[in-house]
Amino acid sequence: GDRSGYALKIRDQLVFHGATYAVVLPALLLVFVSGTLAWKYAGWFYILLVLEHLSQESYRLLITLSRSSVANLVLFLRAGIWVFAVAALGIFTPSVVSLNLVFGCWLVGVTASLMLAGFVLRNLPWRSVLYKQINWPWIRRGVKISSRFFAASICLLGVQYADRYFLQHFHG
């Protein structure tokens, strides 16, 4: 395939994600303002949210680039291996396990997954895309197409969970 084309699309996707973060991350302050989450977890929340998202996107990207074995290793680092470390600590030295330890191990796992993905993608021609314009029409088309799927997913989740609230409201 066209390696510079891949690098351009990845760069433009990262631009889109950055713009989305600029809108969504400040809006998520409502989670803390409302008291749903304690302010002391705001740092963990934001760093893990962004890194988890980037790791998930790198997983999808590696699958798209026919690197499924590496993609699965990225997924395992992100969501698997660090859990075993926390579980082992919980079994052998339960007094050291805390929420901060869990978040710290999670951070190590997701960071390792991103480092692996970055290592695999390092050979793409990144310098060649630095001086090319961002393809805003491509980004807008992607948002337009994907917004339909996003809306359908939200509706499906709403239907799946609405019955609980109806039962609670009408049946107590």
Strand content: under 5%
Distance between the termini: 59 Å
Determine Rg (CA atoms, Å).
20 Å
The major beta sheet can be summarized as: none
Mean pLDDT: 92
Unreliably modeled segments: none
Number of DSSP-assigned strands: 0
Tally of alpha and pi helices: 8
Series of secondary-structure elements, N-terminal to C-terminal: HHHHHHHH
| Helix share bin | over 70%
Main structural class: mainly alpha
Choose one word for the global shape.
globular
Give the topology, please.
Elements (H helix, E strand, L loop, with lengths): L2 H25 L2 H4 L8 H23 L3 H12 L1 H12 L6 H23 L4 H4 L6 H36 L1
Helix pairs in contact: 3-4, 3-6, 4-6, 5-6
Structure notes:
The chain is an all-alpha fold and 172 residues long. 81% of the residues lie in helices and 0% in strands. The chain has eight helices and no strands. It has helices spanning 3-27, 30-33, 42-64, 68-79, 81-92, 99-121, 126-129, 136-171. Helix 4 (68-79) runs antiparallel to helix 6. The longest helix is centred in the C-terminal third of the chain and has 36 residues, at 136-171. The protein is globular, with a radius of gyration of 20 Å. The mean pLDDT is 92.
